[in-house]
Write a structure and sequence with these properties.
Helix content: 25-40%
CATH superfamily of the largest domain: Aldehyde Dehydrogenase, Chain A, domain 1
Strand order of the largest sheet: 14-15-16-13-12-17-18
Protein name: Aldehyde dehydrogenase
Largest sheet: 7 strands, mixed
CATH topology of the largest domain: Aldehyde Dehydrogenase, Chain A, domain 1
Distance between the termini: 58 Å
Shape: globular
Number of strands: 20
Number of domains: 2
Keywords: Oxidoreductase
Family: Belongs to the aldehyde dehydrogenase family.
Radius of gyration: 24 Å
GO molecular function: oxidoreductase activity, acting on the aldehyde or oxo group of donors, NAD or NADP as acceptor
């Protein structure tokens, strides 16, 4: 397929960006990967208008046709896997293991999944109800059916950590339900999403059903959120940006699906398998350099096993090789940008100044280039410290001791976030009871593995709505009730 397009994709056509281009930087080498289009707010509006014009045709297309198109997209993603993986790796700085197993293949799986879901009936039948006569209408048996209907035009604003995967998780179910979309990828790594637009075009996605606009500032995304042609915003990113989106979208009562920040708590009870707990918590370092919202970044540890777990975590960090993500031995690659590294380092400095101790890491590794931070463990952390309350989105774990279960739950629930928590205990019934007390959308018991059929989303400031599995079809649909006399 060659070099990704340097133009935006609007209404089935490749369009020159109004603002020229900007460089996309490889986080490991600090070299330019390619030139991304700098679209204008007006071009974002044009993309939304193109999606609006295409909506009726796509929404009225047969389920079999939509399923066939989605399946073709999945097939072509597989065909071009070897072309996409190096681009994903270069843009995100992910290790080759993550890029080759957790990026492109997962995007393929999502298109395949929703190609199947597209064939499911949108109808939910209800039994007839005996209704007494009223001044409004005569009595009798009244039948009803609930129909899932597409929302309309969806603006899909995606994050930088898993650009292709997150985009697929939004676009595939949205299209399966008959919506049309405008994709606005993160400015740090949009080239793979432009490559996806080429694949969608080749797959025969009708003009205007998928549109892609890119830019290095917030102007394009802001224009989409405010556009009268956009009915729904699906956003994954920071709570700060999500709050701004909500303020604007609320003026027009637009539908919102938002997966925002997290500060995952891993509650390690006194009877926990400490090796299993250390491995789970260590995934913060080992999986994409901690750039994942579900990471167990707060280790809440019963005081009786605190020192033992800290010792195991320090040892685990020692096995997390930092370096070139192209090297098979590398476990921890770079952060996405110099700005993100600076933010992590600033938070670390705040923690140390407040009294936290660096048990391991805390520095930049001795590498000539790249936006690296060593796997870092902070001990002596109190719940009121910024390092215990704010999301690092980097390879940093903080440890907080507790004396009893009530204190652990209070600490876990004591931040504005509530996306993903964990409970480690050999007594799974007890762990289940603790999980029920946690104000979070997801809980892993003795595991950091995901079940992709479960609804995914957060409590509190971690988001609005749920997606994944069949629940994503609900997220991208409206419910229409139809009643009739029997």
């Amino acid at each position: 397929m060659g070099v990704p397009s340097s133009r935006i994709y609007v209404g089935g056509e490749w369009v020159e960006p109004a603002g020229g281009h900007y460089g996309v930087i490889n986080p490991a080498t600090e070299q330019v990967v390619g030139e991304a289009p700098e679209a204008s707010a007006a071009q974002a509006e044009q993309a939304a208008a193109a999606a609006r014009a295409a909506f009726d045709g796509w929404a009225s297309a047969s389920q079999a046709h939509r399923s066939e198109v989605l399946a073709k997209v999945g097939d072509l993603l597989t065909k071009y896997n070897d072309d996409l993986v190096p681009l994903v790796q270069a843009e995100t700085g992910a290790t080759m293991r993550v890029a080759s197993t957790m990026q492109v293949p997962v995007a393929v799986e999502r298109f395949q999944r929703y190609a199947r879901h597209a064939m499911e009936s949108p109808l939910v039948p209800l039994p007839p109800q005996a209704i007494d006569a009223t001044p409004l209408a005569p009595g009798g048996l009244v039948g009803a059916v609930i129909r899932r209907a597409p929302v309309g035009v969806v603006a899909c604003v995606t994050p930088y950590n898993f650009p292709l995967v997150n985009m697929a998780g939004k676009v595939a179910p949205a299209l399966a339900m008959g919506n049309t979309v405008v994709i606005k990828p993160a400015p740090q790594d949009p080239l793979q999403v432009l490559r996806f637009a080429e694949i969608a075009h080749e797959a025969g996605v009708p003009a205007g059903v998928i549109n892609v606009v890119t830019g290095s500032t917030s102007d394009v995304g802001a224009a989409l959120v405010a556009s009268p042609d956009v009915d729904m915003i699906s956003f994954t990113g920071s709570t700060t940006v999500g709050r701004r989106i909500g303020e604007v979208a609320g003026r027009d009562i637009k539908r919102q699906l938002m997966e925002l920040g997290g500060k995952g708590a891993a509650l390690v009870l006194e009877d926990a398998d400490l090796d299993k707990a250390a491995a789970g918590i260590g995934s913060t370092w080992a999986f994409h350099s901690g750039q994942i919202c579900t990471a167990p970044t707060r280790a809440l540890v019963h005081r009786s096993v605190h020192d033992q777990l800290v010792e195991k975590l320090v040892a685990y960090a020692g096995f997390c090789e930092v370096g070139d993500p192209m090297d098979a031995a590398t476990v921890v690659g770079p952060l996405i940008s110099a700005a993100q590294r600076a933010r992590v380092e600033e938070l670390l400095a705040e923690g140390v100044a407040a009294g936290a101790t660096v048990a391991v890491g805390g520095q930049r590794p001795a590498l000539e280039r790249g936006f690296y931070v060593e796997p870092t463990l902070l001990t002596g952390v109190r719940p009121d410290m910024s390092v215990a309350r704010e999301e690092f989105f980097g390879p940093v774990v903080v440890v907080l001791p507790f004396d009893d279960e009530d204190e652990a739950v209070a600490i876990a629930n004591g931040t504005p976030f509530g996306l993903y928590d964990y409970v480690f205990s050999r007594d799974t019934a007890r762990a289940y009871r603790v999980a029920a007390r946690l104000r979070t959308g997801n809980v892993g018991v003795n595991t950091v593995a995901r079940n992709h059929e479960t609804p995914f989303g957060g409590f509190k400031h971690s988001g609005i709505g749920r997606d994944c599995g069949v629940f994503a079809l609900h997220a991208y649909s409206e419910l229409q009730s139809v009643v009739w006399p029997s």
